[in-house]
Design goal:
Elements lengths: L25 H16 L2 H20 L1
Length: 64
């Protein structure tokens, strides 16, 4: 019996994106971070997406 690969890349979509830099007050930053944390904990897909994004960022850092 053939083992399944843990992750299989099915599709890659090229998209336009932008990078922004903002300045935000510390108390607003903390409030938004907490609201995001509460939201993401209840959303399995968001948790998975976060973990994948962090893994990809780490891979990018290692390959530079």
């Amino acid at each position: 019996m053939r083992k399944k690969k843990p992750i299989t890349l099915l599709r890659v979509n090229d998209i336009k994106s932008a990078s922004i830099t903002i300045d935000i007050e510390d108390d607003l930053y903390e409030a938004m971070a907490e609201a995001g944390r509460v939201h993401i904990v209840k959303d399995k897909l968001a948790c998975f997406s976060y973990a994948v994004n962090q893994a990809l960022l780490e891979l990018c850092k290692q390959t530079k």
